Amino acid sequence: MDKIRELTKTLVVACKILDAEGIMDELGHFSARTPDGRQVLMNAKVSPGQVTEEDIVQLDLEGNKVAGKGEPAKEIPLHLAVYQKRTDVMAIAHTHSPTIVALSIAGADLRSVDNLGASTFGEKAPLFEEYGLVDNFEMGHRIADAMGSQNIIVLKGHGNLVAGGSIQEACVSAIWAEKSAILQYQSMAIGTPQWYPKKEIKKIQTQVSEGKAFERTWNYYRWRLARR
Questions:
Q1: Number of domains in the chain
Q2: Does pLDDT of 210 surpass 90?
Q3: Which of 4, 76, 142, 180 could form a disulfide with 117 if both were Cys (CB 3.0 to 4.6 A apart)?
Q4: Are residues 52 and 67 in contact, defined by beta-carbon separation less than 8 angstroms?
């Protein structure tokens, strides 16, 4: 129970960080797999910036509510389909990251133009081009299949899905993906972007994973949240 409580507290902080940074809006949701791997925690139908520990619901991987007072979000299949297929995924953020959405509307792939992008989605992020809310497992599984082994997928005109090995990693990756998208958008407005060479991306990912960039970034944004 203590582990679930600790996970719940961290999930609430992550929701509030992404809301404060303008990445997770009033309709986003964040989930985390429980330590036993068989269930997930997720904010109920409460905006991430307003969520409290009491607003977190616990679900099995089929979407049945196990604990919690709130009503689960309509798009739980978007999360659960990935958890079902990817045992390595421990947390998922579904955001309506504004610049990422804008690029998808313009028909532009989200591609690496900086170290943060290279670290988060490699050469480019996969794009899912069906429309509407992901309120059924059939669509959720198509998204999970399109996502493959990557930790991000862009939902055209809708948002994105960012996965990680922890809540902290998913939260930081969502921030980095939006920051990289902003740089791509700005460079496209100025001229022709210089995409990161494919051969350099693996090196950058290794450098980031072997350092403390995720931990340092998580601590920084938690500090920013506390100052507000």
A1: 1
A2: no
A3: 180
A4: no
| For helices 2-20 and 167-190, angle between their N-to-C axes, nearest 10 degrees | 20
* Domain, as residue range, for 202: 2-227
Extract the tokens encoding 215. Answer: 């931990």
Q: Residue 102's domain is classified under what CATH number?
A: 3.40.225.10
Spatial distance between the Cα atoms of 169 and 215, rounded to a whole number of angstroms: 8
The whole-number pLDDT of residue 166 equals 97
Give one DSSP letter per residue of 126-178, joined into a string.
-EE---S---SHHHHHHHHHHHTTSSEEEETTTEEEEEESSHHHHHHHHHHHH
What's the one-letter identity of residue 76?
I
Q: Which residues pair with 57 in a beta bridge?
A: 42
Q: What is the DSSP letter of 32?
A: E
